[in-house]
Amino acid sequence: MRGLKTIIFLIISNTFMTFAWYGHLKFKEYDWGKNLGLISIIFISWGLAFFEYLFQVPANKAGFRGDGGPFTLVQLKTIQEAITLTLFMVFTIVFFKTEKLGWNHLVGFALIVLAVFVIFKKW
Questions:
Q1: Residues whose CB falls within 8 Å of the CB of residue 109, separated by 6 or more in sequence, listed in order
Q2: Cβ neighbours of residue 83 under 8 Å, at least 6 residues apart?
Q3: Looking at residue 37, what is its pLDDT?
Q4: Cβ atoms within 10 Å, residue 56
Q5: What is the domain partition of the chain in residue ranges?
Q6: Three-state SS for 108?
């Protein structure tokens, strides 16, 4: 159960972080965002990042083996990175329609998924 909670919280956390890091690139397309200065954009992104931390910290706490969770620190980081890249790909396709994901992006992502397998494999 803690493993599932960890993964769900990491998905929510990474969704907020993806919008904090890259969502502002779309602000200029909206009336309210056309004249925002860099400081305003930074504060909006920090506001989103606050919600990212509300889920990231509990996810790591619940998932970390040292706190009774099922994952090692390396496994937690690997899960987080795989989720980040998955969400980033979806975000890119949905919100940045002019960006195209090529075969090299997909192969690179497949290698990351392979890395997850290798890290979790008991040798």
A1: 85, 86, 89
A2: 7, 10, 11, 14
A3: 92
A4: 19
A5: 2-120
A6: helix
The pTM of this model reads 0.84
Among 29-43, 59-73, 88-102, the range scoring the smallest mean pLDDT is: 88-102
Residue predicted with more confidence, 123 or 39:
39
- Output phi, psi for 71, to 5 deg: -115, 145
Which amino acid makes up residue 79? I
Tell me the CA distances in angstroms from 87 to 10, 34, 41, 99, one per residue in order.
Answer: 11, 26, 21, 15
Cα 49 versus chain centre, distance: 11
**Token duo for residue 85:** 């890249």
